[in-house]
Design goal:
This protein is of the alpha/beta class and 534 residues long. Helices cover 32% and strands 22% of the residues. A seven-stranded mixed β-sheet has the order 9-8-17-18-19-16-20. It has a five-stranded parallel β-sheet with strand order 11-2-1-15-21. The protein has a three-stranded antiparallel β-sheet with strand order 12-13-14. The chain is globular, with a radius of gyration of 23 Å.
Length: 534
Amino acid sequence: MGDQRAVVIGAGPAGLTAAYELLTRTSIQPVVLEQDDIVGGISRTVNYKGNRIDLGGHRFFSKSDRVMKWWAELLPLEQSDNSQLALSYQGRQHSLYPAQGGPDPTKTDAVMLLRQRKSRIYYLRKFFDYPIGLNKSTIVNLGLPRMARIGVSYIKARLLPIRDERNLEQFFINRFGRELYLTFFKSYTEKVWGVPCDQISASWGAQRIKGLSVAKALTHALTRPFRKKSDVAQKKVETSLVEQFLYPKYGPGQMWEACTERVRQMGGEVLLNMRVQRLHVEKNRVWAVVAQDRATGREQVFEADYVFSTMPVQELVRAVDAPVPADIRQISEGLVYRDFITVGVLVDNLKIRDDVIPGQKLIADNWIYIQEPDVLVGRLQIFNNWSPYMVADPSKVWIGLEYFCYEGDHLWKLGDAEMAALAIDELAKIGIIEKASVRDHTVLRMPKTYPAYFGSYDRFGELQAWLDRFTNLFLVGRNGMHRYNNQDHSMLTAMTAVDNIRAGRTDKSNIWAVNTEQDYHEAQDTDSSSAGGP
C-alpha cells in the first residue's frame, strides 16, 4: 500500500472518518475534496455572531462501541462525579474518561458534554411526551374519546396487521394503530417529505424507527427508574428512547474540525472550496478525480488508487466520464432529495414554560416536534439546551426553526428577510414567543439534506450494483449511499470500507449492510476482520 493515494469526496462525517482511518490504519495518503468552505457536511456548526447553529440536531450516541471510542479519543468527555461511564469495545471495558480524569469545560474547549435528552411534540398548542407515553397529561390533552379510539385501533393493528407492508403509512399503522398514526405521525412526516405517507417506501420506517413500538415505549417508561444512569451506551434502548448523549462543547462541527486538524497533522490533505466535476474511469476502476477550485475556477486532476464518495449519487453518476446505461441514468435522475432551511432566532425569552421550576426562562427540551398543521415549521431546536456554550449571551434564548422544502420551490426562493419574517410569525402564531422579544435572526439553506425513499428509489439496487462494479470506488455516508443514515452509521460505512481495503476484500455487501439490521454488531477484532462493524 506504500505511496498509494485515496481521493475522498466530501468532508462530512463519512469522508473525514475515511481519511482518519486510512492515516491511522494504512499507509494510504488521503486527500479530501470539500466543495464548501466549512467541514462537517450537515453535521457542521455555523457560527453567527457567537451564536452557534447545529443543522438538524446531532446527538453523539451510538450502539457501536467502535464509534463511541472514536469520538472519545478526539474529544474527551467532561469531568463528572460519575467515574463509571464506560463502554465495551473489542471484548474489553474502556472508560470514556482519560486516565487523568475528564477535562473541565469551563477551562478547555476540546471536550464533550454529557447531556440529558428531552424532546416533545407540540400539538393542539399543548405538549406531549416524545415518544408518546400513556400518562395523565396525554390522556388529559387528547381526551378520553380519542384515547379510546387510539387503544381500539392499536389492538386491531396488533391482531390484524397489514400483511404486505409496502409503504410508510402501512408501517406506522402496523406499529401504532391507525388512530395514533393519524394523530401524531401523518401530518409531521408529510411536512418533512412533502408527499403522502402512502407514497414513501416502508424502508424509511425500518431505517429510522427500527424496533420502536407502543409496547417498547411503555416498557421503557416502566423500567426507567431501574436503569443505571452510567450506561451512556444504552445498548438495550431503542434509539428514539435514548435519554443521555454526548455533545461537543461548541456543537457537532467541533468534532469534525478536530478531525480535520488531526488528519492534516498526520499528513493528509483537506482541501476546501473544491467542487468535483468529473471522475475519469477506465474499465472497472476510477483512476482520477477532477475538481474545480471555486475561488479561482482552475481545475485540478487528482490521480487515485481508491476513491471514497459521499457526494449525492445523482451527481456522482453525472460526473462519471464513461457511457452510463440508459436504465441506470434513468434511475439516477429519478432520485429525489429533500432540502432544508434553518432559521436562527435570538429572543429575550419564551412564552412557553415548564411548571417544574417557577419563573424558569427555559423549557428543558433539546428539540420540539411541531405537529400543528396550520404552520410550515417542522421542528424547533433550543440551542441553549444542547450546550450552554452555543449561545453568546446566556441571558438570551437561541432557537432554530427547521423547514423542509425542495430546492427551487416557493419556500426555498424566499429572501432571507421574508423567510425570517415567516418563521417569527409562525412562532408567535402557535404561542412559542412574543414577536417583540426577537433580537436577531439568520437564515441557512442546506440542499440535498435528506435522500428520499420515493421517486426511483424502488430500483436503487440496480444503480447500486452498477456503481459497485468500480472496484476501487466506495460509496459511504448519507448522500453517498442515498440512505437516511445517522452520523454514526455514516462513520461505520467509512470504517468498514477501510477494513475491506486492509483485508483485500472486494465484495462491498458489508458496507451496504450497515444500519440495515435492528441492532448492528461490532467486529471482534478490526485488525483481522473484514467486517469492521455491522
